[in-house]
């Protein structure tokens, strides 16, 4: 095998898992926590369709890329439902996920709610080493192709009020040995604070923990103008490197977005690695966030319910 590609493969297989990248990571996590917390679905009455597309380390051969398509809707009786289609590719490794999310929203009082979610998923995991360049095609590893389909289950909790929200989730509970999948624990939250009549600031955090790996921490802050335009920044690193990212490594991202209409939202983020080691190996990353809110609702309005009740009484 060509040493250049072998080094790339070893880098992706060893360094990436050490940085808790076995599961997809996005800068716009605060806009679509459904990716890791099923309790997030059902918060909006209308059906929403969203997409997150992340390309890391542009220009690096075999760089990670993740594309996702998500559906989210609210049902009757405080229920929510959602679906995810995710394609994740790193060098010769290609994973395709399909998940169904279910949630139940329980009012705690007039100002706060608690949501409980369940995630049912399937993962088509493929390894194709024949895509790499080999100096010697008789090398037995040149013909290695493996494919696994793994099912899993996850759960999540989500507390939210008008200004405060906190979430805890385990999106994939089982740890299949075939693909060396590790269980990840997610803790997320944020707070919204009005700054006058037009501006609002929204700090967020995301903590991700898995066994035998440093804890991943992301801190972000977003400034909204009239809820239609926003700019923000995100900083991410491990718990060991958080206080010294210039030496040990980290990532800083800048985000912006706006609403083109009441139904259509578009966001973009640009990320750059920092640190003497990581910045020398990793190039910049880009992410696009798209959200479309349809006019369709799976919930009946109070007027429709009253009309049905009147028709039943007449019958």
Give the fraction of residues assigned to helices. Answer: 10-25%
Report strand %.
over 45%
CATH topology: Porin
Distance between the termini: 78 Å
Provide the number of structural domains: 1
What would you report as the Rg, rounded to the nearest angstrom?
22 Å
CATH C-level name: Mainly Beta
Continuous helix count: 4
Molecular structure report:
The protein has one domain: Beta Barrel (Porin), CATH 2.40.160.40. The chain has a 14-stranded antiparallel barrel with strand order 1-2-3-4-5-6-7-8-10-11-12-13-14-15. A hairpin with a 3-residue loop joins β11 and β12. The chain is mainly beta. Helix content is 12%, strand content 52%.
List the helices and strands and how they pair.
Layout: H1 3-18, E1 46-55, E2 65-74, E3 79-90, E4 93-107, E5 112-128, E6 145-161, E7 164-170, E8 184-191, E9 193-195, E10 199-210, E11 216-225, E12 229-238, H2 245-248, E13 250-259, E14 264-274, H3 278-281, E15 285-297, H4 302-314
Antiparallel strand pairs: 1-2, 1-15, 2-3, 3-4, 4-5, 5-6, 6-7, 7-8, 8-10, 9-10, 10-11, 11-12, 12-13, 13-14, 14-15
Quick recap:
This protein has a 14-stranded antiparallel barrel with strand order 1-2-3-4-5-6-7-8-10-11-12-13-14-15. 12% of the residues lie in helices and 52% in strands.
Key structural traits:
315 residues; Porin; 15 strands; globular; disordered N terminus
